[in-house]
Amino acid sequence: MLKVTDLRKEFAAVVAVDGVSFEAGNGEVFGLIGPNGAGKTTTIRMILNILVPDGGTVTYDGRGFSDEVRNHIGYLPEERGLYRKSKLLDTIVYFAGLRGMKRAAAKTEALRWLGRFSLEAYRDRKVEELSKGNQQKVQFICAIIHDPSIVILDEPFSGLDPVNQIVFKDIFHELRAAGKTVIFSTHQMDQAEKLSDTLCLINRGRVVLGGTVRDVKRRYGTNSLHVEFSGDGAFMSALPGVRRALLYANAAELELETGATIQTMIGAMNGRIAITKFELVEPSLQSIFIQTVGDSNAAAPPAEAA
Asked: Is 2-217 assigned to CATH 3.40.50.300?
């Protein structure tokens, strides 16, 4: 189990992380979520001992960070960390060697993972010749090839198309089933909602909410109306009984006031749009995020370290 307690990090006059605490257990996918500049990457760097915290502790099954612990961690940074002039297979084998793998075993595993990501034909290509998405896949392979017990992924879906996002999601489930602790940061709430067992929302360096996805959604009630339609739905946010509205091109999520009913809402919409689907649902993590963080982050200076 990874346990983070009261982490704090300050850069000059900016407090990037302020008393962050959470736990992530074995066989669990943990989502570290928040807006850009919230302190997610700084928190991850302190967990990995890349940055030394000004306060607080990080323990792995009750132990502090050490070289032994480091070799049981797989890390995918948000920034590209690959040698651009190196060939794919050589790059993966090199990073595996840094984690103690023998060359023969590393090459076998590298080829297996390249096959999993449909990159076999690129094994002798240079990293710089790949697309951003394919570079992300190679970096992911480098993070997990040594079979780590803790996998930490900073914005893992960056640059991936929908097909490869599904491949990543499948691997997340496999890692969980194998008893790994998977921690990933994201500001994409749909990914966090679909993948996380538990999550922690950070804003301006502080924990705003946390718990299982189910508990977080129950905490914010179930009076949310999802509508799919054609036409101009801009008027929905001003309807009586609507507390908050998330509007998209052909869909809307409406948080209703107490006492508002589906029948009343649909009646007010009929004749103004063509409704194709509607249902009363739990609030999405996206709507909870906006409700919790709102516009408070817009004018604030970023908390992340450069």
From this structure: yes
